[in-house]
Amino acid sequence: MEEKMGRRERKKLQSRKAILDAAVEQFSRKGFKDTSVADIMHEADLGIGTFYNYFQSKEEILFCLLHRMAQEVEQVLDDLRAAHRPACELLAAGCRITARFLDENRYVLPLFLSAADRSGMPGGFASGEGGGTAPGFKSIFEIILYEGQSAGEFRRDVPPELIAEMFHSVYQAAALSHLDIPFQENVAMKTKLLLDGICVRKEGE
């Protein structure tokens, strides 16, 4: 019985992943607005009714994609922390990974930007998996900023929450930029300027 349940669960996970992957393909090709549930399920080679066994709407898929992104960011940050890397390096890495994901999945950008005002810890994504609150990526930056201030790496005369807002706004500024600079490079340049402004320089640097 346990083996049978195991196969059933694996099949469910495979179907869910197939739907997510198909949605990414269709959103990338046709855009979020012009992609229908039928398009997604045709791409996944599954019946339309199966969609609603896993998701309530197309919008819920965006939450799940953001959840994927947060997991990727946090895994890299955990690895850097384990290697005792400085907070400035963690912040730069988090910004870089986020920029790459948003550049490759532009249809997620509006939800990502709105998340700044709609939730707290990225760990609270469990609700995002089920279509709840949009994940708050700003809090990922806040945690690093608190760590950096405690370690004396970042200036302490500015609240971490304010600095985190500035980092979060970089993505919107890059997305709306009229400069002939690719999105990821635009984010990287703005990120460097912010880091230069908040990092405490040691003597001789």
TrEMBL record:
Matches recorded under SUPFAM superfamilies: Homeodomain-like (SSF46689), Tetracyclin repressor-like, C-terminal domain (SSF48498)
Residues of the HTH tetR-type domain: 13-73
Keyword annotations of the record: DNA-binding, Transcription, Transcription regulation
Single Gene Ontology MF annotation: DNA-binding transcription factor activity
One Pfam family per UniProt: TetR_N
DNA-binding region: 36-55
The keyword Transferase appears for this protein: no
Domain of life of the source: Bacteria
Matches recorded under PANTHER family: HTH-TYPE TRANSCRIPTIONAL REGULATOR BETI, HTH-TYPE TRANSCRIPTIONAL REGULATOR RUTR
Name of this protein: TetR/AcrR family transcriptional regulator
